[in-house]
Amino acid sequence: MAESDNSRGEERQEQQEAEGGDFFEKDISRRDFIATSGKVVAGALLASSGLKHLGGSVKADGTRSFTLFTTTDEHQYLLPYNYMEDAANENIGLSKAMTLFEEEAAARDNYMLLSAGDTIQGSMVGNLEFDVEPLEEGETQKIVEIFNEMGYEAAAVGNHELQDFGMDFFEHAVEGAEFPWLAANIRLAGSDEYYVEPYTIVERELDGETVKFGLVGFVPPQTMKWGRDWVEGELEFDDIVPAAEEVLPEVREQADIVIALAHTGLDDSPVDSDAAREDAAAHLAQLNGFDAVVCGHDHSFFPGDYDWMDMEAVDNNLGLIDGLPVVMAGSWGDSLGVIDMELMKQNGQWRIGEVSVDLRKTDENVESHPTVEEMAEDVHEATLEYVRTPIGTSDVAITSFFARVADNPVTQIVNDAQLWWAHNNAELTEGEFADLPILSAAAPFQAGREDPEYFTDVRAGDVTIGDVADIYIYDNELRVMKINGEEVIEWLERSAENFNRIDPDYDGEQDLIDGSFSAFNYDVIDGIDYEIDVTQPEGERIVNATYDGEPLSADQEFLVVTNDYRAGGGGGFGPTERHDPVYAPSGLVNREIIIDYIEEHEPIAPEPTNNWRIKPVEVAGTVHFRSHPDAMEVMVPGLEGKVEFVEIDDEGMGVYDIDIAAL
């Protein structure tokens, strides 16, 4: 894509000139201007790292300051409290984001507050309102009421708005919203009619001048797969970039400034790849027509977290992509995104001039806002009572500290429960499936997200509903796939992308884990035995795979118990993209099966079966990985004496050396 940067700048300049704006005294492209002047372009004009006076190369009739405040992926974390851990967490909470918003807004005259979606589901508050104490007729979800109080102007529809609890609950939960939910790439099945409003036009009076803002929503098209049970036959999802290209001319006719309010992350893959179709924000920013992009979905920070992206257009330090301001404000209320911009009126038209992109992050020094505290008090107390309900005991700690380097209790308890359910289900053990071996796939959902907070940590003793939510954080439903031995290996090869390729002859330090690979895609398949050769390239790492002591046969057929996200093609696993599940019991939630299993078998002791391991290999240098700083307190069987604590890094993560020759 780098090859198109200059031509894209020229196209925008031509477009601007056609609209009456001669914004450059010299005929140079935007990318060339960046290189020669040290300033950057935002939308149609110039931007710098701060709100400074405009350069002499821009002719404007007047300027106005305006700010976009943003949150994203709130996931029902209303207060600084993690219900899965049943503990306060001073780095999260919409109540803290509201405090930051009020502080920042007090210093500005003109602004709006936006959300990039994934709002109504995620924490146990969402489960309470959906299943435990369901919303009654006419009730609005608590977080929506809080959004009303905070004054949100609009929210994008996120994938979790639809895929977990379905369309009926979404429509019920948000019917009291005093702001629109937007998505320009969701249509009613079989028609061109949008499911929700694709965009909204917001007018602001800025010192006597009217400026029209167009806000356009987007959601990953993979929501069709992830929420198949809820949306199939009801909705259709278009790819984000084509949908944007279709709607932009209509929005630009009505708006002075156009903002993508997009529940999508950042990826540098080709625009038509599955990865970039899901995480399309970088490609949106490079379209002619948007002036800013507010994004989410990745639970990451932009600027800040994307120095790995191999795109010339991406400035991870300034928060710019192809010169446009772009912001992603983390998740769970852990930050407030801020785009400060100078709006310039030139030849009667408004443009974005200088901008700065910033993130205000929450911590122990940010007070939880009393208004949100008061509004959330009832659901908070009810949720605490629910998550503290005991269901059994465990004789061992269930943590994900070593889940990405060795078999572990987190995936073991999930696979144990799923296999228990399957072997007691007549639909799978009788009739057409009676002769098929049953396998189970599970991933360690919380196994590090570049900080020590994102791990499963259930210690030996009482096990509560909240603990099970810590083990299995998503509201997935059970699904059963039918695949052959070759496809089992293909499935595991995708999981093995969890690892960097290790050079056994390199005498320096090497990172074992690919930090950009999501832990929720690291599936462990129980019921077979296999090794992962991390010295081999991707696609050639699964070796010595056996079933019942015999080499795995390519054409042998298996049933694999998994969840609706994976069975719907989530994560880019070939077999689950090609095949539909053969058994899809509606409403049967994976987490509930784990609860039933614990109640039936308590006290439990999910000792890893060690059916998989990293293949031992001598390495000239050292191999390390990052995990929770307290990981050595709960060493898993098989790793004793093979892992050594090194240090705690700048992000608070523990760094560990691992002797893969001894595994």
Q: How would you characterize the overall build of this protein?
A:
With 663 residues, the protein is of the alpha/beta class. The protein has two domains: 53-381, Metallo-dependent phosphatases (Purple Acid Phosphatase, chain A, domain 2, 4-Layer Sandwich), CATH 3.60.21; 389-662, 5'-nucleotidase,  domain 2 (Alpha-Beta Complex). It is 26% helix and 26% strand. It contains 20 helices and 36 strands. The strands form ten sheets. Strands 10, 11, 13, 14, 15, 16, 17 and 18 form an eight-stranded mixed beta sheet that branches. A hairpin with a 2-residue loop joins strand 30 and strand 31 (550-551). Helix 4 (124-132) crosses helix 13 (370-387) and helix 5 packs antiparallel against helix 13 (370-387). The longest helix has 18 residues, at 370-387. The radius of gyration is 26 Å and the shape is globular. 53% of the residues are buried. Residues 1-59 have low confidence and may be disordered.
Please describe the structure with a list of short key phrases separated by commas or semicolons:
663 residues, alpha/beta, Purple Acid Phosphatase, chain A, domain 2, 5'-nucleotidase,  domain 2, 2 domains, eight-stranded mixed beta sheet, six-stranded mixed beta sheet
